[in-house]
Structure formats: structure tokens, C-alpha cells
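Anyone have C-alpha cells for Protein NLRC5? Sequence:
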Amino acid sequence: MDPISSRLGTKNQWGWLVSLLSNDPEWLSAKVKFFLPNIDLGSRNEAPDPTQRVLLQLRELHTQGLATWQAFIHCVCMELEVPLELEVQLLSTWGHGDGKGVHEGCRGAQGRRGPT
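Reply: yep, here.
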């Protein structure tokens, strides 16, 4: 079990998040750069296994603190095609906060990706 999912008690949600983001590595890299503009992920982004790369990026986002993580989760739910049941679980587990500035860096609901 991943150390973060173990600590958060959210193994299924963490695994689903990794799986979803493994399908769109460019989106994830852009969000990491947005939320962590002063951190050089350099060689950490060059992991040969795409799943490992996603795990490294998610760990980096998570370790930046709750506000960053919550804003990132809101972006995932607003911009990617997330099944409603999982969106509710993600937001109820990780998406709480005061709501101020949480949508900065997200395109907004109208920018949500549709099926291609």
C-alpha cells in the first residue's frame, strides 16, 4: 500500500486517482507546474514507469500542504471526466476547505473535458 494512502486511509481513492492521472500525464504535469512553480521536479519527472511518475508528482503535491492538495483535487474534479460517485468521494475526503481561491488554476466547470 502506498504510504500516503495508508496514512489517509484512502487506498481505493488513491489508486483510482493514480489510474486516472496515468491516462493524462500532460494534464498532470501542467498542474504540478502550476501549483509548484518554484520546485524543480527535474529527474523525478523522468521515471520510466508512467505510474511511478504519477505517484511522485502526487506525493509532491500532497506534501505541499492541505490547501494545495484541496485545490488540486478540485481541479481534477472540474477538469477531468470523473464519474460522479468518485467525484463525490474525492471531494468529501480531500476537497473540504474554506473555498477561497480553490478554483484558481482550474478552467472551471465550463472547461470540463468531454469524451474524445
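Residues 50-63 form the longest helix (14 residues).
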